[in-house]
Amino acid sequence: MGAQISAISYIFPKNKITNENLQKEFPDYNFSKFEKKVGILNRYVVENGETALGLATEACEKLFHLTDKNNIDFLLYCTQSPEYFLPTTACLLAKNLKLPIGIGALDYNLGCSGYTYGLSLAKGLIESGQVKNVLLVTAETYSKYINPKDKSNRAIFGDAASATLITTSEQNNISQILFGTNGDGAEHLIVKNGCSYPYDPEANEIVYGTDNLYTDNDLYMNGPEIFRFTTEQIPNFVLSILNNQNLEINDVDQYIFHQANSFMLNQIRIKLNIPKERFYINLADGGNTVSSTIPIALKRYLDQNQSSSSRKIMLVGFGVGLSWSGGIITI
Amino acid sequence: MTKDAFIKLLQDELEYENELYGNTLIKELEEWDSMSAMILIGVVAQNFGVTLKANDIEAITTIDSILEIIGSDKFN
Predict the structure, then answer these.
(1) Contact call for residues A126 and A3 (beta carbons, < 8 A)
(2) B9 touches chain A (CB under 8 A)
(3) Burial of B9 by CB count in 10 Å (0-12 exposed, 13-18 middle, 19+ buried)?
């Protein structure tokens, strides 16, 4: 017995921010170069009152056009934008969705590695015979954490939610997922205040990168260090996944990695000699949506490349933590 | 790679209007930004197998100082 991805849906908030919009706010920044190098044309952000839970609810309702919600027996909710400190947001999501009372539901706090982690947890729950149908939801509203004067992060990150149904299958269609963790890099991508360290209304504005401003209440990303981590760590991690599955680079039909930044993704691709046509880059519409980039990219890829024969797709997520995970799905 | 070839490559990748020279104070240029830092890290990693750290980027002054961080033995 194995597990498989049966359906995916995703949603963006309605409020779309184009590079032209940002250019008006930050006239000195070269957004046409940003567009060309980083590959993002627009991102969507929640407006006052909208939350990640709301997006998650919408993404799931969209999924229920494709599948019967009454069969779901476990809900995994990946977010770093919980509705409250407590209760668990997954319980609220289950309520919103009117899921059966007899299900299991939990939140887990991961960012860009979260989707592939979720596949691993779902696979474990299914293959150990505990459940049959897992609803894996990712939802993030980093826009709430970003300082309005932090143009780099405002340009890169967007809000979104995704919902994936993982079910039992005869074949083993989700491979062993591999992991990596390095808390030494925690400081490179962080929101310091608001949790155990209180939000500080008088926090100092700090300048970083190219005239970006933030305070310790806001999201901070050390771009060069995150870039270094990714280009150093991830190519070898990809080789470990191939090795684990006894595969060569060209045995995998498509590589779909966390869509962080097209320049960075290309660095990884070139280092591994992966042919362009096997390497998916598509973040122009939506930007970096954290744990939702992989399901969004996977859904877009499958919609654009319909096929009756099965394909092997490598999924790898990496980022905040620092944390990374990945494996191969057959679909 | 020669020093001149490296400067030319950097010029092409960064797409700066300013001409770059060994003694150009790159971070003083108006065009220098965090994207430039990313591109620089990428170009250096791909061509020399050296990954510049955030504090290397901070320490950079001239183009020659980048060459020093990469290692003068890497250039002919």
Answers:
(1) yes
(2) no
(3) middle
Q: What pTM did the predictor assign?
A: 0.95
Three-state SS at B2: coil
Supply the DSSP string of A19-31, one letter for each residue: HHHHHHH-TTS-H
Residues A159 and A230 in one domain: no
- The domain in which residue A125 lies consists of 2-169
Q: What is the DSSP string of A42-110?
A: EEE---TT--HHHHHHHHHHHHTTTS-GGG--EEEEE-SS-SSSSS-HHHHHHHHHT--TT-EEEEE--
* A102 lies in the same domain as A28: yes
Q: What is the pLDDT of residues A231-254, one digit of tens each?
A: 999 999 999 999 999 999 999 999
Pull the structure tokens for residue A147. Answer: 């300082």
User: Per-residue pLDDT tens for A299-311?
Assistant: 999 999 998 899 9
Q: Please list every residue in chain B whose beta carbon sits closer than 8 Å to the beta carbon of residue A30.
A: 31, 33, 35
- The C-alpha angle with vertex B44 and arms to B43 and B50, in degrees rounded to 5, equals 145
Residues A30, B52: C-beta atoms closer than 8 Å? no
Name residue B12's amino acid. Answer: D
Tally of domains in chain A = 2
Q: Is A221 helix (H, G, I), strand (E, B) or coil?
A: strand
Which residue does chain B place closest to A222, by CA atoms?
A: B54
Q: Is the domain of A229 the same as that of A151? A: no
